[in-house]
Write a structure and sequence with these properties.
Chain lengths: 270, 234
């Protein structure tokens, strides 16, 4: 809204946006509210409604509440298997968060640099760049395999007749949640390395995983049908399979490449 | 007007917040190294904030308690995915919002299975009528009754919101969170999130505006003298 005419009243949407600080022309709105008794009354009514909402107060929890929660959940926590490295590093390096962050940035930067640098045909042994790329190809391949399994399980899940035909997808949901974080990282890396096809497949996959993760763990038949339709309509399962097999192919090529290089070099000399 | 979240307000200052974050970070490291008790310290520190959020989202204590527990269990399982640069409290907050969203959707589904939509609407109307008659039978100047009625009406009004609308409204109005953050939680575009907040406020306004009119009229001396409860026809 560039300029609010004096005669034109504000609509409800504008008032709500103004109330929550999202209206761009705040000074124009303010001036109009000061000038127009009708709009001013409407706005005051909105304010009163919002102030009513503070009436049901949140029940207080005392300072021992956290301890009670801990006692309730502690027996339900799965055992964490900390690696020896993690155990000692947590004690030896107090700033290991920063170190881990820096290392992650270095690995991704090296991967991106590796993707952007033209290949040198003369090397017979894989350099660190190729090794890193191979590791990432393997990781994305694994990730796609795991995602495929979740999608296949969801596609084949059978509703439970004894429970109102609902489907328990809690396990797939947990796995989808876990996959989401990896997916974001791989999509980002694919984008940065200019691999638009892979990034696009990962983006579509991310939307489906988000849907699954945010669905109820026992969706109604209608909700479950929607999830399935989402998987089927976008052909995401097929795309994940094709991209996964492409990754495996790239993995094989990456392994064969160093063995083939001497031949190429030999061929170049003759 | 953007409100600051209560957790921010209750902090004794930036220095305290920094020291809290430092303590959280240290505890997260210890958890990752296999020290389960360190997770207990994180639970103790964040439980009350999470309960307040969960209660506002779900509207009842039992669900709120379960959301708090679910959120911590989910956080523990996902702990190795926690990004070191992030603030643990913010990360946990988002997990709790998602748990609350799941719980509300689940509750809605269960309710839908249990009763027909028309029966549910009838039930809401009946509750509202009971409240009206209760207020009408009570002595007019009894502000406590009115206040309890307002509380009950507000609870009912909040129940008419969809889970996404409730999350958007709670995060925007009570928690003072920005549209971008709400968009991320709901996996919506910013414009769609603004619309969701708008729809929520619109619904609440429709449900609660008659109360304001009545409250204003009730407080007038003439209305009191006549023992009338104007607006009760709503």
């Amino acid at each position: 809204m560039k300029e609010i005419e004096k005669k034109k009243h504000l609509n409800e949407e504008q008032m709500i946006a103004y109330r929550f600080g999202e209206e761009k022309d705040r000074s124009g709105m303010q001036a109009h509210l000061a000038d127009c008794p009708e709009c001013s009354a409407q706005f005051a009514a909105l304010e009163r409604v919002l102030s009513l909402l503070d009436t049901p107060s949140v029940p207080q929890r005392d300072e021992h509440y956290g301890q009670r929660v801990w006692r309730q959940i502690a027996p339900r926590l799965p055992q964490r298997r900390a690696s020896t490295w993690q155990f000692w590093s947590a004690r030896a390096f107090p700033h290991s968060w920063a170190i881990a962050g820096a290392m992650a940035v270095l690995v991704i930067a090296a991967y991106v640099a590796g993707r952007l640098t033209p290949p040198h045909r003369g090397h017979s042994t894989p350099g660190p760049k190729q090794v890193r790329e191979r590791i990432l190809i393997v990781a994305v391949g694994d990730h796609l395999d795991r995602s495929e399994m979740v999608l296949v399980e969801l596609s084949n899940a059978v509703p439970n007749p004894s429970n109102g035909q609902s489907v328990d997808i809690s396990s797939e949901q947990r796995r989808a949640e876990d996959l989401l974080d990896d997916n974001r990282l791989y999509r980002q890396t694919a984008l940065e390395s200019g691999d638009a096809t892979l990034a696009s497949v990962l983006e579509e996959l991310e939307r489906v995983l988000l849907d699954v993760a945010h669905s109820p763990d026992r969706p109604t038949p209608a909700q479950f049908k929607k999830i399935r339709q989402r998987i089927e309509s976008q052909g995401i399962l097929f795309k994940v399979r094709v991209t996964g097999s492409e990754m495996r192919q790239r993995e094989k090529s990456a392994i064969q490449a160093p063995q083939e290089n001497p031949k190429v070099r030999k061929g170049n000399h003759t | 007007m953007i409100r600051m979240s209560e957790s921010t307000q209750s902090g004794a200052g930036a220095a305290d917040a920094r020291s809290d974050r430092g303590a959280d970070r240290g505890n997260v490291e210890r958890v990752l190294a296999g020290d389960q008790d360190a997770f207990g310290l994180l639970v103790e520190r964040h439980s009350r904030t999470l309960f307040r959020l969960a209660y506002r989202m779900t509207g009842n204590e039992q669900d709120a308690e379960e959301v708090v527990q679910d959120a911590f269990l989910r956080a523990y399982r996902k702990m190795d995915r926690f990004e070191s640069r992030a603030h643990f409290g913010t990360w946990l907050y988002r997990i709790a919002v998602n748990c609350a969203l799941d719980r509300m959707r689940k509750r809605r589904t269960e309710d839908a299975h249990r009763e027909l939509p028309s029966a549910r609407a009838d039930d809401h109307t009946a509750s509202a009528n009971r409240l009206d008659s209760h207020a009408a039978d009570s002595p007019a100047p009894d502000r406590l009754v009115l206040s309890a009625e307002i509380g009950a009406r507000v609870t009912l009004a909040l129940q008419t919101l969809s889970p996404a609308e409730r999350v958007a409204f709670v995060m925007r109005h009570w928690e003072g969170r920005g549209i971008d953050e709400i968009s991320q939680v709901l996996a919506l575009r910013a414009s769609a999130t603004k619309n969701t907040v708008f729809r929520a406020v619109q619904k609440l306004r429709r449900a609660l505006e008659p109360l304001i009119t009545r409250d204003l009229m009730d407080s007038s001396p003439t209305a009191r003298a006549m023992g009338a409860t104007p607006g009760s026809e709503t």
